[in-house]
Structure formats: structure tokens, C-alpha cells
Fold this sequence. Notes:
By secondary structure, the chain is an alpha/beta fold. It has 14 helices and twelve strands.
Amino acid sequence: MDFVLEFERPLIELERRVDGLRQIEAESGADLSGAIDQLRQQAERLQRQIFTSLSPWQRAQLSRHPGRPFTLDYVERLCTDWTELHGDRAGHADHAIVSGIARFRGQPVVIIGHQKGRNTRENLHRNFGMPRPEGYRKALRVMQLADRFGLPVVAFIDTPGAFPGIDAEMRGQAEAIARNILEMATFTVPVVCAVIGEGGSGGALAIGVGNRVLMMENSIYSVISPEGCAAILWRDRAEGPKAAAALRITAEDCARFGVVDQVVPEPPGGAHRNRDAAIDALGEAIGQHLDELATMSPEEVRADRYARFRRLGVFEQGMVQEGPADNVVTLGSRRAASDDG
């Protein structure tokens, strides 16, 4: 493993010692099984210790790990007959979002997802997973195709945010994101979204309006990155760990607040340590939700999605004083947002 996070380093060093002893054992024929078992058990204890007490900042670091599975990794393992569709039909192409048609467990579906790279060359090609307006317009075009032909949509979210460059703003970045959110709310086909890494701001929401929103255990979902928040509040991006704790960006927090519907556990040590197991776990969760949504009529699917987002958050109405101080009229109280609220 080339990329190692600082808090993982003691574990990686132990595992390398185990690998070294196994190599010596194979080359010399000496019986080192006792020492190997002792180190392996020590590594397992250390892994549990590290990964059961991760801070929000450490989870943010894990969500960005270049070894995590990306959208195309999920497509390759979970789907067959993948056909990628390119372009926004307005003269532009964007490689930070991939889209296409595939079969998931034999069922035709449309796949939308952010795509990052594993090295500098790939990241430049994918713009570090930050789409421009044409990426969102491509995604919308393919999702409209899904709605027209009755195909469920599966969206994989993994972006620091929409690209904030001048060229993106000139071509209508904000309008493209808003249009996607508006259009996705009207679809009559099931939409299942999964945050597989970073879920950053409007860049994530533009493909995140689903009947069900899932989150991998070590992913994050936030209106702004911890570093961006720290730069605004404390004028210092180094305060990212403090901002990560304050923002409540972890999967556990998002599930507790009802922002996501399910947290999908990752393999011990994180998705980057066992990509196949992580992909299979999310695939199982996606399959269960698609099966559930398949029992609904098109109008029920749309109503279900609308109701889901109406349940998010709470509002609080204050008290208006009319006349004497002892004659206070209460206009409302804190309640969950609903259609009649």
C-alpha cells in the first residue's frame, strides 16, 4: 500500500514485519509461526483500537484515501453490460462524472457517479472528481433517459464539490446544480444514492436527490469541506480537525440526523484495505432498497422521495408579543418539517 495515513502507520509497520517474517520463513525453512501469530494478533488488536475510535477528521482523511473504491470500481464488480454515455449534447464533455446503462443483478439500471483518479495523471483527467456544469448536464440527460424508459437510477457520490473555476461559473455551474436537484425531485423511477467517499456541498447534492441515500461507514457528507469551513471561521485551514468535529460530517452523525437512510459498514481497517468486500457490502444494500422500491407505483415512488426530503430538519417558530407583556401569543413550536407545517 503506497499511500499511508499517519494514524495508520503503526498498523502498517506491524503488518510489514509480519510479511517480512513470512518471507524469511519461506526462504530459510525455519518455523517462525509462533512469532508470526503473535505479531498478527497484535496487529489485529491495534487495528480494532485505531478504527473503533476514529475522530471526524480521521474519517474525513479516510474518505479521501486514493485506495478506496471509486464509481467505476463499483460498476466493474457489481454490474454487467456497462455502456458509458458521454457528453451533454451542448458541445462539452466532462470526465469527473461518469454515466451509462448497465445491468445490476440482471436488472437494467442507469449509473451516475463522480470519478476520481488514483494518480496525478488520472486526477488531472478527472479534474480531481470536481465536475463542471457539463458533467451535471450529462448526468441529467442520462437520468432523464432513465425516467423516460422506466429504469432505476443508482448514483455514486464522491466529490470535494463542484469545480469553482471561472470557466465553470461562466457556463452556469449554479444553474446546472439547481436544475438537477429540481429535475431529480420529479422522477417517477426509483433513485438510490450512495456516498462512497466525499459528499461535498452542491456538487454532491446535484446527483443526491434519491428515494434512499446510503453512506459508507468512513465517508463524509457536508455543506463544505472541513478545511473550507476552517478558512472561513478561523482564517486558517489548519483548523480543519476542529471544523470536522463541529460540522457533524460523519456517517454516524448523518444517520442520527436523518440525512441518510443507512450506514453501510466497511471491512476492518476501511474500504481501501479490502475493496471487494466494501463493494459487495454496498451492492447488497443497494439491491435491498431497489427491491423495496420496485413494489411502488411510479407516483408512489415520486411521493416517497418528496416525503423523504420534507422530513429533513426541523424548524422553530418564535413567540410574538401583542399588547402587555403578560399577553404573549405563541405562533408555533419546534417540530419536524412536514407538508402541513
